Amino acid sequence: SQKIRQIESTMASNFGELVLLLGDHHLPSRTTSIPEQFQRMLVPHKMQHVICTGNIESPQEYERLRELVGGGSNVHCVAGEYDFVQQQQHQQLDDKKVIQLGQFRIGIIGGHQVVPWGDLSALAMIRRKMNVDVLVCGWRRKEGVVEHDGGY
Fold first, then answer.
1. Using an 8 Å Cβ cutoff, are 101 and 19 in contact?
2. Which of 21, 91, 133, 152 is the most exposed place for a label (fewest CB within 10 A)?
3. Is 27 in contact with 58 (CB distance < 8 Å)?
C-alpha cells in the first residue's frame, strides 16, 4: 500500500537507478512467453532503464519494454540479426548505441557483428572505438561481467 510504496521509493533513491538488461528473447518466433518467475519481476515503473541487445522481433515486445519504464526514451535497444522490429517500427534500430547512465558511458551492441564471436580482444577493440566504460554485448547466450583490458 502507500507505506510500502514510500519504503520502496526511499530504497530506490538510495540505491540509484535500476536497469533491466536483456536480449535475444525471440518473442514470438522461438517461444510464446516470458517464464512466469520473470514475469512477476517485470512491473511497470520498477526499473528506470531497459537495455536490450536485440532480437526483440515484434513491435508488441518493444512496446512492452517501453511500458516497463513508463513510456519515454529510456528503452535503449540495438538491432539483432533477427529483428523484425526494424521493418515494422517507425524508429530504425541502430547496430550500436552509446548511452550515459550516471557516471558511466555504456556501449550496446547485438554481438553478431563481432568476429570471432565473443572474442575478448575483439570486444575490447570495439569498446575502445566506442569510447565507453562498459560494453554490453548480446549473442553469446551467456550472462556475466568480464573485466578485460581496462574495461568491462
1. yes
2. 91
3. yes
Paired residues of 20 in beta bridges: 50
What span, in angstroms and rounded, lies between the C-alpha atoms of 145 and 152? 7
Per DSSP, the residues of 77-135 read E---TT--HHHHSSSPPPSEEEEEETTEEEEEE-STTSSSTT-HHHHHHHHHHHT-SEE
Question: pLDDT class for 2, splitting at 50, 70, 90?
Answer: low
Please count the other Cβ atoms lying within 10 Å of the Cβ belonging to residue 76.
21
Residue 76 · residue 107 · CB < 8 Å: no
**Contact yes or no for 98/126 (Cβ under 8 A):** no
Residue 32 has which C-alpha cell? Answer: 510464446
Give the span between the Cα atoms of 81 and 6, in whole angstroms.
42
Query: What confidence tens digit (pLDDT) does each residue in 52-107 have?
Result: 998 888 788 888 889 999 887 899 999 888 776 545 544 678 999 999 998 899 99
What pTM did the predictor assign? 0.82
What strands lie across the sheet with 49-52, from one edge to the other? 19-22, 49-52, 75-77
The residue among 76, 91, 96 whose CA lies nearest residue 137 is 96
Residue 23 near residue 80 (C-beta atoms within 8 A): yes
